[in-house]
Amino acid sequence: DSGVTQTPKHLITATGQRVTLRCSPRSGDLSVYWYQQSLDQGLQFLIQYYNGEERAKGNILERFSAQQFPDLHSELNLSSLELGDSALYFCASSEAPSYGNTIYFGEGSWLTVV
Amino acid sequence: ILNVEQSPQSLHVQEGDSTNFTCSFPSSNFYALHWYRWETAKSPEALFVMTLNGDEKKKGRISATLNTKEGYSYLYIKGSQPEDSATYLCASGDDSGYALNFGKGTSLLVTP
Q: What is the pLDDT of residue B96?
C-alpha cells in the first residue's frame, strides 16, 4: 500500500458527461501529480500541484481541470467526455516537487466512456 | 519533453534466469531517473531513484545502473522468480520542469 488513495476505482459513464476523480496523497506529501495511462501509451503526465498551487502542466486537455485543496487532496475533473478519454488515471504524490524524491502512485481510477 | 524509450517491449524468461532491460533518455538537461515495478491491478511501486552518473542501486535481486552522459540505464534481475513478473517502467525528469516522463515499459513474464 503506497498510502495514496484514489476514488472511484472504476467508473463507467456516457459520452458528453462529466466526472470527478479524487485523490488523497500520502500523509505529509505536498505535491500531487495526475497521469493518464491509455491503451498502448506510456504514462502521460497531465498536471502537478504543490501545496495547493499548480506547478507544471503536461498534455492535459482543455476539457480537463484539476485542483488541490487546502487539506492537500486533489480532484481531476473531466468534462464533455469522449470515447478516447477511456483510460486509467493515476494520482501520485511526493514530499516536494523534486526529481530526487520518490513519487508514490495510487492504484488508479479506471474510466470507461461508452 | 524528454523522449524515454524502453527495450525490449516484452520478455519471457524461465525461473532462475537473469535478465536485464534498457531505458534510454535524452542526456541533455538530465536530472533524475526513476525505475518502477507495476503489477496488474496494483499501483506502480518505486524501485530506484538515481541522479548521478555512474550511480548503481541494488534492492535484493534487482539492481540498476545509470549513465547520464550517454543517456541510458539498465535494470538487472538476478535469478528471476515468477513473482518478478510485472511491467518495469522507467521515467526521467529534466531541469526545465517538474514532471517525470515515462517510457512504455518492459513487460516481464517469468515462468516456473
A: 57
Chain B CB contacts of A5 under 8 Å are: none
Is A42's Cβ below 8 Å from some Cβ in B? yes
| CA nearest neighbour of A49 among A25, A27, A81 | A25
* Residue A79 grid cell: 468534462
Q: CA B29, B33, B37 angle in degrees (round to 5)?
A: 155
For residue A48, list chain B residues with Cβ-Cβ distance below 8 A. 98-99
Tell me the per-residue pLDDT of A42-74, one tens digit each, with 9 for 90 and over: 899 999 999 999 988 888 999 999 999 999 999
Q: What is the pLDDT of residues B36-94, one digit of tens each?
A: 999 988 999 999 999 999 999 999 999 999 999 999 999 999 999 999 999 999 999 86
Grid coordinates representing A41? 501509451
| DSSP line for B26-67 | --TTEEEEEEEEE-TTS--EEEEEE-STT-EEEETTEEEEEE
Number of other residues whose CB lies within 10 A of the CB of residue A49: 24
Sign of the Cα torsion A81, A62, A74, B87 reads positive
Cβ burial, residue B93 (10 Å; 0-12/13-18/19+)? buried
pLDDT (0 to 100) of residue B26:
86
